[in-house]
Structures are given as structure tokens and as C-alpha cells.
Amino acid sequence: MNIKSLQIPIIQAPIEATAELTASVSEAGGMGSLQGTWIKPEIAAQIVDSVVSKTNNSFSVNFVLSFEPHSFDAVIEAGAPVITFSWALMQKLSFFSTAGPSSV
Predict the structure, then answer these.
(1) In 3-state terms, what secondary structure has residue 53?
(2) How far apart are the first and last CA of the chain?
(3) Are the beta carbons of 79 and 46 closer than 8 angstroms?
(4) Residue 59 contacts residue 22 (beta carbons within 8 Å)
(5) What are the tens digits of pLDDT across the range 10-55?
């Protein structure tokens, strides 16, 4: 995913985003975003599945790295195409696996 490939240079804020809003922003040409930090892994995977079923365009799942990223593997396995991070220290990246085709 190249940010320059967006039709509309808008990246939706992930907090409180629904699958419907995220897919709609992506379908409109922007980058739809979900938050992944405070959701149980199984719920996060269901939400990503829902977005994947609604759009073929890229969207992201964001993790706030001041907190344990419990649903990281679940969103990767569910097919989240882009992962974003905020409030991070580089050593926090050791929490993550490299399973899946997502852009990090």
C-alpha cells in the first residue's frame, strides 16, 4: 500500500470507527481505519472480516503501543491490509509477529 495511491488524501481517525464507516471511507477513495488496541482478538477479527467483505480497497487497523496489542495477530490473520501504530517506542515492536501479508 502506497499512501500516494489514495484517490482522496484523507485518513480516517480510527477511534470509535465502525466496519461500515471504515469500508465507506475506503470505498470513497480515502484510507478507512479501525482501532485494534482495546478490542478482544475474536471481536477485532470479526470487524476486520466485515470490512474486508464490504470493500476491496485498503484500510488500516491502528494500535496504541502504550498498551499491550492483544488483537494484533487476530487482525493480521483476518486480512487487515495495513497496520498503523501510535504512541510507540521502538522496543515495543518486539510484541508483534510477522505472520501475514499486511503492511506495517
Answers:
(1) helix
(2) 10
(3) no
(4) yes
(5) 899 998 899 999 999 999 999 999 999 999 999 999 999 999 999 9
pTM score of the predicted model: 0.80
Helix (H), strand (E) at residue 34: strand 32-35
Q: What residues contact 11, with CB distance under 8 A and at least 6 apart?
A: 30, 31, 33, 60
Q: Is 91 exposed, middle or buried (0-12, 13-18, 19+ CB in 10 A)?
A: exposed
How many CA atoms lie less than 13 Å away from 36 in the CB half-sphere? 30
C-alpha–C-alpha distance, residues 74 and 8, integer Å:
29
**Alpha-carbon gap, residue 96 to 104, rounded angstroms:** 10
Structural contact between residues 37 and 67, judged by C-beta atoms closer than 8 angstroms: yes
The DSSP bridge partners found for residue 11 are 31
